[in-house]
Q: What sequence folds into this?
């Protein structure tokens, strides 16, 4: 069935690429051609998701992609990243500059090769570990943007953290989305944490408010090997003209720990995060923390899928939302426990506060459980600040605004306190204060 | 060789030759669904034109609808042309005496504590004319009539109270609601009609069981309950005893309408044939149930205990339209063997200060799959709406599955919603504790399960609750150990 909504843009893509064989890539390993073929055929047939797709029921993509985009075009005049301010700029770390998805070595501070390797993904396609990541079968039906991404990506970064290495500073990826015209950027990133390694990855976003609309279609494949620890922090705050779909696939091996923190703050008009975690080993721990603070006509959608395949693992999801103005937010979490994954502990929580009658929240925490000796629970709430708590604070001499802002901070604190990085924590708390003071007063 | 067209033509003319419409004395229609079948049903029941038109609308909607694909199981391929849509009520008893009945069935009846005469009725044995409940039913009917309560079959209501039926039928579940509701609209056989006049509190639990002509209402029941201003009624459907039925597909529709200050309590205990060991031949229970709290301060409460059927697929819903109205849903669903349950509720909050409460307890054993699927929707005008949802799952064994799919949508900042769900198994320590006190494992499980489901069972009318408890214990027999 043809999805009418995106016919123009899709036709444009299909005409531009004329099938995968014409794809403009210099290095084309044979395995990749096959994968691209499948993905491209899927995309050609199905196009962008419609609201008939259960995974996109509350997320109409039409208003965000209905533009004549240029795909993966570079800005003609030179762009100087050092002049561009982004959220999280002052944080210490190895700054890795990605302009429209492409790694810019000259602007980046690449860490010592002994600590980790950072290369454009197109240079490493023949590495067996890269091939392994890219050949994993993926559910295109639920993620049509991923099909497009796999079929057409020509950019992205490859990060490799060697065995038993501790990266001393965070690796800070800054995604610059720039261009004169309307821009559609596709990138594929691969992160491999070898066994016993420890690293922190931060992602920031930049889009000039003078620039035309940019759409970012990014997918990240992550492997966390035995005993490795990976912290992954997304600071999603940028300009109104930036829209994005970020797809993250994580595979964890035994005894590993992966922490994902996703902070979506006012700015970007449309954000869709897919976070799929596969717990492929025992004694794995995964934590997913999300905070979305939305305003104006923002649409923020968080989809998670946690797949417990082996016994004795623990997964924990905590997503909190504060919605103001006309904004909309979606949370869709799924925990899947296979029948052999006994002794699983899986928790899922989503709390929301609505600050406006025009804001809308859709939440759907789901459990699919096939093992009996498990502890799984989920909770979801939608509400407002507690009147009794407000009264308590006001009775102790706090002004209404102060009392409200204290309660909002406490609400968000549950998520920010989970950060192990004190500097990011402080930065976020300050930002939340600032945003909320505007809303409350 | 004849061409396909010739064969089709041949068939169509042949049908015409025998005539569905003219032969009014026919008892059972041959399998098949078309406009003539619907005309035949309508004519046979001596229905007014508007009802036939409405049936036709339902049929048109049915033709246009597609099978849903969102459910968490593979929907069986139902051949709608292979079903006979009309059978005259059978008066023939199936057996001459209880001795002919399957002893396994009788053993179950005994353990449920069902009186002998009732056993006969349930098993389809010929019953004496002086059977107790018949006389009870007659006395009850007189008493109800005195209060102005109408409680009769849908066919009678169409004949005797056409204005009421016309005014309300299909207003809660429209003819195009879903494919099975459309099918029901087109071919519904019979069902119950209840009308409680203003200010009347129905003095007894109404039940199809007491409605003597209610036997064999067939697979496409249509129930309509109207509670006028400040009235109250409690309605019971089904019974705890296992029921045999040759119809595999059951697609009933239940509509409830509560006016200002009225309260309707609808309780269901369902224990239909779940199929053999491989899950073959069991009943498909695809029911559309919906109530509307039309007036302010009205209340609708659904309570269900689902233990039978090979597939149970239903979402009793409440539309909270009136201000301060209340919707409740209490459910226990037990699945074992290869049974499937995909059940839950939908609550639409439209009016101000509307409240809803959902308690769902799922128990899965064997190789069964038990899903809770629910929707709570808060509209823009539903100021201070309140919802509490709790859905717990209990797993017995590691070949079964428990699933939770709650959909929660809010468009109002003053609304407050809570949802929580847990999945667990019966703790070994709990069983050990009971074993120590001399209770064998099987009884211990029954005890724990009953405690787990207590919150829902306590909402059932008393006699029903006692039977439902026994039923739970019986259903889970043999699933532990």
A:
């Amino acid at each position: 069935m043809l999805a009418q909504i995106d016919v123009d843009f899709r036709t444009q893509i299909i005409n531009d690429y004329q099938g995968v064989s014409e794809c403009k890539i210099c290095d084309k390993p044979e395995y990749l051609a096959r994968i691209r073929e499948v993905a491209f055929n899927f995309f050609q047939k199905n196009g962008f998701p419609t609201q008939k797709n259960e995974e996109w029921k509350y997320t109409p993509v039409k208003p965000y992609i209905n533009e004549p985009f240029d795909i993966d075009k570079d800005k003609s005049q030179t762009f100087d990243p050092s002049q561009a301010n982004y959220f999280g700029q002052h944080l210490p770390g190895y700054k890795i500059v990605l302009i429209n998805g492409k790694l810019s070595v000259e602007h980046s501070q690449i860490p010592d090769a002994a600590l980790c390797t950072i290369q454009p993904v197109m240079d490493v396609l023949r590495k067996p570990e890269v091939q392994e990541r890219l050949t994993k079968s993926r559910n295109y039906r639920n993620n049509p943007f991923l099909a497009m991404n796999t079929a057409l990506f020509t950019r992205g970064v490859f990060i490799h953290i060697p065995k038993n290495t501790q990266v001393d500073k965070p690796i800070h990826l800054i995604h610059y989305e720039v261009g004169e015209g309307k821009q559609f950027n596709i990138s594929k990133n691969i992160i491999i944490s070898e066994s016993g390694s420890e690293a922190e990855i931060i992602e920031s976003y930049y889009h000039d408010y003078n620039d035309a609309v940019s759409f970012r279609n990014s997918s990240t494949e992550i492997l966390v090997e035995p005993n490795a620890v990976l912290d992954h922090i997304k600071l999603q705050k940028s300009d109104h003209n930036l829209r994005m779909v970020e797809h993250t696939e994580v595979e964890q091996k035994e005894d590993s720990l992966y922490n994902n923190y996703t902070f979506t703050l006012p700015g970007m008009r449309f954000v869709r995060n897919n976070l799929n975690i596969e717990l492929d080993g025992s004694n794995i721990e995964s934590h997913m923390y999300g905070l979305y603070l939305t305003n104006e006509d923002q649409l923020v959608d968080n989809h998670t899928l946690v797949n417990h395949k082996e016994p004795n693992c623990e997964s924990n999801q905590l997503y909190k939302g504060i919605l103001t103005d006309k904004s909309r937010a979606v949370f869709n979490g799924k925990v899947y426990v296979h029948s052999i994954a006994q002794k699983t502990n899986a928790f899922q929580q989503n709390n929301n506060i609505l600050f406006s009658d025009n804001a809308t929240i859709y939440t759907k925490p789901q459990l699919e459980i096939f093992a009996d000796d498990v502890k799984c629970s989920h909770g979801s709430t939608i509400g407002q600040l507690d009147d009794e708590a407000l009264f308590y604070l006001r009775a102790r001499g706090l002004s209404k605004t102060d009392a409200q802002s204290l309660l909002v901070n406490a609400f968000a604190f549950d998520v920010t306190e989970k950060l192990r990085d004190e500097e990011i924590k402080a930065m976020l708390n300050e930002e939340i204060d600032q945003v909320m003071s505007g809303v409350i007063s | 060789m004849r061409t396909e067209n010739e064969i089709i033509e041949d068939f169509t003319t042949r049908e015409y030759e025998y005539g569905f419409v003219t032969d009014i004395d026919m008892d059972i229609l041959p399998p098949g669904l078309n406009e003539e079948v619907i005309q035949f049903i309508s004519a046979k029941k001596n229905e007014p034109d508007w009802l036939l038109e409405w049936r036709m609308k339902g049929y048109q909607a049915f033709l246009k609808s597609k099978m849903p694909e969102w459910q968490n199981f593979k929907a069986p391929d139902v051949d709608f042309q292979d079903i006979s849509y009309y059978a005259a009520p059978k008066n023939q008893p199936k057996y001459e005496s209880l001795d002919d009945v399957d002893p396994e069935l009788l053993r179950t009846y005994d353990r449920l504590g069902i009186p002998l005469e009732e056993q006969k009725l349930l098993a389809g044995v010929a019953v004496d004319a002086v059977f107790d409940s018949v006389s009870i039913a007659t006395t009850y009917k007189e008493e109800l009539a005195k209060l102005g309560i109408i409680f009769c079959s849908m066919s009678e209501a169409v004949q005797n109270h056409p204005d009421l039926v016309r005014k309300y039928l299909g207003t809660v579940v429209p003819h195009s609601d879903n494919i099975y509701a459309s099918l029901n609209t087109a071919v519904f056989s019979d069902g119950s009609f209840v009308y409680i006049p203003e200010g009347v509190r129905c003095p007894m639990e109404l039940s199809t069981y007491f409605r003597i002509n209610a036997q064999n209402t067939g697979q496409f029941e249509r129930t309509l309950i109207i509670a006028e201003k400040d009235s109250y009624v409690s309605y019971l459907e089904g019974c705890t005893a296992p029921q045999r039925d040759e119809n595999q597909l059951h697609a009933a529709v239940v509509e409830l309408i509560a006016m200002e200050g009225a309260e309707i309590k609808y309780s269901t205990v369902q224990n239909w044939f779940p199929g053999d060991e491989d899950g073959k031949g069991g009943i498909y229970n695809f029911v559309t149930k919906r109530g509307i709290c039309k007036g302010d301060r009205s209340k609708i409460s659904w309570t269900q205990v689902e233990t039978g059927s090979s597939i149970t697929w239903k979402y009793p819903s409440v539309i909270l339209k009136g201000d301060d109205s209340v919707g409740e849903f209490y459910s226990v669903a037990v699945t074992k063997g290869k049974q499937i349950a995909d059940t839950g509720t939908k609550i639409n909050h439209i009016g101000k200060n509307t409240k809803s409460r959902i308690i769902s307890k799922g128990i899965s054993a064997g190789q069964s799959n038990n899903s809770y699927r629910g929707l709570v929707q808060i509209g823009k005008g539903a100021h201070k709406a309140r919802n509490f949802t709790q859905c717990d799952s209990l797993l017995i064994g590691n070949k079964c599955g428990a699933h939770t799919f709650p959909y929660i949508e809010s468009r109002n900042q003053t609304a407050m919603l809570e949802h929580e769900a847990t999945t667990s198994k019966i703790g070994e320590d709990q069983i050990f504790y009971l074993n120590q006190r001399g209770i064998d494992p099987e009884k211990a499980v029954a005890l724990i399960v009953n405690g787990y489901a207590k919150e829902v069972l306590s909402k059932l009318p008393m006699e029903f609750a006692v039977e439902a408890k026994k039923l739970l214990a019986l259903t889970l027999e043999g699933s532990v150990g």
